[in-house]
């Protein structure tokens, strides 16, 4: 269910991060129709660039659209790193996959909603809701709980403080050293396997051979230095990706 908390202020500075430059051009071109009064600020192709610009007061957008697959990083990580530092940016996750693939993770990472790139009417609705300080969940029956930017920032800030008190900076160091090693497909493979999907089911969803999915999984095991696939999934889940 969508929740709106007020009228959208105009203009609305909007930015996007997507490692597909054609997708960025498409978003920029259609944005005036999706969100009347929106002001396009920038498009970033990498997680690092997007995080830096979102945290810089001179380039900070009011609303950032975050693709979930970003090459060597993930949109979930981008959302978490931005939200832990500020409540000034509204975050809307976008994905070419089914939204329930990432909904719970990105909600926990501090985003205000998630929407499919392919559903243009729903994308327009989500942009309007999130720009107006609301939250957007395309599947009310899901267990994902999206919070406003302010509430999500407070929750992550409290969690970070508690985690540091309990274990110092060990978990942060582990995330920086472990998570970035995985490519987007490798990370997505571990995520879907952790949700109980089989190689065959993932292959069907992606439209590829099951052997391709196995290759992604085996590479993830190797890159994480894991003893088994189950160990790799455990490491990936602990990293919070």
What can you see in these coordinates?
- The protein is an alpha/beta fold and 241 residues long.
- The protein has 2 domains: 12-153, Rossmann fold (3-Layer(aba) Sandwich), CATH 3.40.50; 173-238, Winged helix-like DNA-binding domain superfamily/Winged helix DNA-binding domain (Arc Repressor Mutant, subunit A, Orthogonal Bundle), CATH 1.10.10.
- It is 51% helix and 13% strand.
- The protein contains 11 helices and 7 strands.
- It has helices at residues 21-34, 47-55, 75-85, 103-108, 120-131, 149-167, 170-178, 184-194, 199-206, 210-224, 229-238; strands at residues 12-17, 38-44, 63-67, 69-70, 73-74, 90-95, 113-116.
- A 5-stranded parallel β-sheet has the order 2-1-3-6-7, with helices on both faces. A two-stranded antiparallel sheet has the order 4-5.
- β4 and β5 form a beta hairpin.
- α2 runs parallel beside α3 (75-85), α3 crosses α6 and α8 (184-194) packs across α10 (210-224).
- The longest helix has 19 residues, at 149-167.
- It starts with 11 loop residues before the first strand and ends with a helix.
């Amino acid at each position: 269910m969508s929740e709106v908390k007020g009228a959208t202020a105009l203009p609305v500075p909007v930015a996007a991060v997507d490692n597909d430059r054609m997708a960025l051009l498409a978003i920029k071109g259609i944005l005036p129709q999706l969100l009347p009064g929106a002001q396009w600020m920038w498009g970033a192709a990498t997680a690092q660039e997007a995080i830096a610009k979102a945290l810089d007061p001179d380039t900070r957008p009011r609303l950032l659209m975050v693709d979930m697959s970003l090459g060597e990083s993930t949109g979930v990580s981008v959302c978490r790193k931005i939200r832990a530092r500020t409540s000034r940016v509204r975050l809307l996750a976008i994905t070419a996959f089914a939204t329930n693939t990432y909904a719970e993770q990105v909600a926990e990472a501090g985003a205000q909603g998630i929407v499919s790139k392919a559903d243009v009417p729903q994308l327009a609705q989500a942009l309007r809701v999130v720009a107006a300080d609301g939250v957007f969940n395309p599947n009310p029956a899901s267990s994902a709980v999206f919070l406003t930017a302010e509430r999500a920032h407070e929750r992550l800030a409290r969690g970070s403080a508690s985690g540091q008190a309990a274990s110092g900076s060990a978990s942060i160091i582990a995330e920086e050293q472990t998570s970035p090693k995985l490519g987007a497909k490798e990370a997505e493979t571990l995520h879907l396997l952790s949700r109980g999907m089989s190689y065959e089911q993932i292959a069907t969803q992606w439209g590829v051979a099951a052997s391709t999915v196995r290759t992604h999984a085996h590479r993830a095991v190797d890159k994480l230095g894991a003893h088994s696939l189950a160990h790799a999934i455990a490491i990936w889940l602990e990293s919070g990706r």
